[in-house]
Design goal:
The chain is α+β, with helices and mostly antiparallel strands and 229 residues long. The chain has five helices and six strands. One of its GO terms (cellular component) is nucleus.
Length: 229
């Protein structure tokens, strides 16, 4: 009616049904495309949040292939690629055995690790109309998660010395390498993840920290990410 486009009365039902379906697909599968504003900072009350950068949605895009991937709070792939290329690239962030399903995390901005499982479930239901049944959804709330070499749970005892040595090396890496240099060390980071994936029982703090660094390296963030031990 608004456009003045004439639809024959006998086709109104078909067109109406199609529009409802398209709107439903868009609502559940569309992704906001945002522009980062690195020169602007967020104000919270009277405090200047210098490490929180603003971004603004510029469009909504429908990615038919990306919409096929399911969610996990413990994803094994990461979306990459720049908006200017009009292309999204999917990259593995850890070893993926043959036959395993590919997952990424829905709602990168609205889902935070400090949230309870119940809070996450509400967001899933309100925004994506599903319930996450994966146990890893609650990992970040488990205060007994092992973190460093002294708490590690080794699956392969013969590799214990090597794993502990590499964990200490990774902690040194964290102290000496800046967040803007992570992308230069992806080969090392992938090697460390592969070692832990094979030999350490999860959840394990250094494993998750390394995954976040790999994520940052692929997404090209220019500001530091917060780590929750």
């Amino acid at each position: 009616m608004l456009s003045g486009f004439k639809i024959e009365e006998r086709y109104l039902g078909i067109v109406g049904t199609s529009l409802v379906r398209i709107l439903s697909v868009l609502d559940l599968n569309a992704r906001k495309i945002k522009i980062n504003a690195p020169n602007m900072v967020s104000l919270k009350g009277s405090l200047l949040q210098s490490n929180i950068y603003l971004s603004f949605p510029m469009a909504i895009a429908l990615y038919p292939s990306l919409a096929l991937f399911n969610h996990s709070c413990d994803p094994n792939i990461q979306r990459s690629g720049k908006i200017s290329t009009k292309t999204r690239v999917i990259k593995a962030i850890e070893p993926i055995p043959k036959g395993n399903q590919l997952f990424f995390k829905y709602g990168k901005v609205i889902l935070k690790d400090e949230m309870t499982k119940e809070d996450k479930q509400k967001i899933f239901q309100d925004n994506f109309e599903f319930e996450c049944s994966r146990q890893c959804c609650a990992w970040s709330q488990n205060q007994s998660i092992p973190y460093g070499p002294s708490e590690i749970n080794i699956l392969n005892p013969s590799m214990a010395d090597t794993v502990i040595k590499e964990c200490k090396r990774f902690e040194e890496f964290l102290e000496n390498v800046g967040y803007d240099e992570y992308h230069c060390h992806l080969e090392y980071l992938y090697g460390f993840i592969k070692l832990l994936f094979t030999n350490v029982k999860r959840p394990f703090g250094l494993y998750h920290k390394c995954l976040r660094i790999i994520n940052q390296a692929h997404t090209g963030l220019k500001y530091p990410i917060k780590f929750l031990d």
